[in-house]
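User: I'm new to structure prediction. If I give you an amino acid sequence, what do you actually give back? Let's try with this one:
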Amino acid sequence: MSSDLPSRPSRRSALKCLAFGGAGTLFVLSGGVLTPVELALAASSKDKAAASVVPLFLQISDSHIGFNKEANPDVAGTLKQTIDYVNAMPIKPALAIHTGDITHLSKPEEFDLAAQLLSGLNPITELHTVPGEHDVTDGPQGEYFKRFGKASDNRGYYSFDHNGVHFIGLVNVLHFAPNALGSLGEDQLSWLESDLKARSSSTPIVVFAHMPMWTIYAPWGWGTGDAGQAMSYLKRFGSVTVLNGHIHQIVSKVEGNVTFHTARSTAFPIPTAGNGPGPVPLTVASDQLPRMLGVTSIKISRHPLAATVSDTTLA
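Assistant: Good question. You get back a string of structure tokens that encode the predicted 3D arrangement of the chain. For your 315 residues, that looks like this:
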């Protein structure tokens, strides 16, 4: 395969590039601080520095299995390419987190296909999830909880420890309304406060939820209304990483010891905040799709996301 994109690539070629732009992000623990590394770089033998790191875990988001519109008629194919990236890594993580919208319409057959595909993550021995709003269209006792509810006693929120890091999965989509902020609710916030009390302030913390845990763009509901209370419980910790999906694009910021990071989708792009008709699947010309996904070349060393999610950007 040529290292450069043709001037007018086919939609099939452009969708291949989607996997480069939306494959996922690895996180490396160094000195108690989690650092994101673009998955495509870590899987490439051309980038020795990225390939040599020991990844702690992988974040994948917004796979939307079941979606088949023009923005990407083969979402299963691009998720499969994401999985192929992980399986090709020279040093592989043991843990993966999916930050929601595994499916598009919460249908049993969509969850079946997603489970089949995700089982192909050969190096992954532990997969943790939180639901997106598309995973719970059938309510809080529906297909998502039948398949993934055990870890949380069917509440959706839970915590676990991995390699000295305390992970907390939160749910902010159960009362989802279009263009409204997500919410955690008093019961979940009370549980979170209690869960954190027993933790030393030197413990690295990873919080993951579907909708952003800070307000990126309120008119489109890109935020969580009561996230401020949750963050107040986390202020005393020396290293906190908050991971979200939902907006299908990378937005990051650092506030004190807290790093916020939203992930790209493996399915399709949506407009940037305030641009276009709303947060809907974005269909672009095939020669524009790689640019909309942050990809200008199949040659990974020219990937523009390297600056966005590399150590330098988030330092």
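You can read the tokens as a compact description of the fold. Here is one thing that stands out. The chain has eleven helices and eleven strands.
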